[in-house]
């Protein structure tokens, strides 16, 4: 059995879960509602305030889907109760971020400011007063991670001076710069 897949998911108060015959799981909580299609071969049971995911056989496909299905449901339950967040740091002279309305504006050494519009109304941006820290908040863990990766991709950290956008806690390996030419004249 998958160690992740066999662990039950405890439902917090104010969270309701519905599973239809095709394994479409709908989770509703204080922050909103989410839905995810789970592999129809797996069985999802809700009993005594817990969700149990079981697989019918031990073939390779069912094994691979077992832990995934449990994690997707757990992320939906966590998303509608507490939500997820991802932090990015802006490093570099003249580099900064600011929030205009719901949008995020980045000044990162390009000829124009780069604007990001939240793809969903459940996702929001927060920017520190100095414009060096960006926080992305929302319910969907996958969507937040993808948006953080797209923002980081606009100016990834470069290895010589370390300038760019990086995840909080990310370590950037720095390289030594070029050395002067030592040729005979």
Question: What report would you give on this structure?
Answer:
The chain has helices at residues 3-6, 60-81, 141-154, and strands at 9-10, 16-19, 24-29, 32-37, 43-47, 50-54, 84-91, 96-100, 103-107, 114-116, 124-127, 133-138, 164-167. It is an alpha+beta fold. The protein folds into two domains: 3-81, Outer Surface Protein A, domain 3 (Alpha-Beta Complex), CATH 3.90.930; 84-167, Outer Surface Protein A, domain 3 (Alpha-Beta Complex). The protein has a four-stranded antiparallel β-sheet with strand order 11-12-7-13, with helices on one face. The termini are far apart.
The amount of helix comes to 10-25%
* Strand runs, count: 13
**Mean of residue pLDDT values:** 92
Domain count: 2
Structural class: alpha+beta
Q: State the CATH class of the largest domain.
A: Alpha Beta
Could you name the CATH homologous superfamily of the largest domain? Ribosomal protein L6
Q: Sketch the topology as an H/E string, one letter per element.
A: HEEEEEEHEEEEEEHE
In the CATH hierarchy, the third-tier topology of the largest domain is known as Outer Surface Protein A, domain 3
Beta-strand percent range:
25-35%
Number of helices: 3
Termini separation: 72 Å
Please describe the biggest sheet, giving its number of strands, its sense, and whether it closes into a barrel: 4 strands, antiparallel
Query: How is the largest sheet built, in terms of strand order?
Result: 11-12-7-13
Task: Detail the poorly predicted runs.
Answer: none
CATH architecture of the largest domain: Alpha-Beta Complex
Identify the overall geometry: elongated
Radius of gyration: 22 Å
């Amino acid at each position: 059995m998958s160690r992740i897949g066999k662990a039950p998911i405890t439902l917090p108060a104010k969270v309701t879960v519905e599973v239809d015959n095709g394994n479409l799981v709908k989770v509703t909580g204080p922050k909103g509602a989410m839905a995810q299609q789970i592999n129809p071969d797996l069985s999802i049971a809700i009993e005594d305030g817990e969700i149990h995911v079981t697989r019918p056989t031990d073939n390779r496909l069912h094994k691979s889907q077992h832990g995934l299905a449990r994690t997707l449901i757990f992320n939906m339950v966590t998303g509608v109760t507490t939500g997820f967040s991802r932090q990015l740091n802006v490093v570099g002279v003249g580099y900064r971020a600011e929030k205009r309305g719901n949008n995020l504006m980045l000044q990162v050494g390009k000829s124009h400011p780069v604007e990001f519009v939240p793809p969903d109304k459940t996702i929001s941006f927060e920017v520190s007063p100095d414009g060096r820290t960006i926080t992305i908040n929302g319910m969907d863990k996958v969507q937040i991670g993808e948006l953080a990766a797209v923002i980081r991709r606009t100016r990834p950290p470069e290895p010589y001076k370390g300038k760019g956008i990086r995840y909080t806690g990310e370590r950037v390996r720095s390289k030594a710069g070029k050395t002067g030419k030592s040729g005979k004249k």
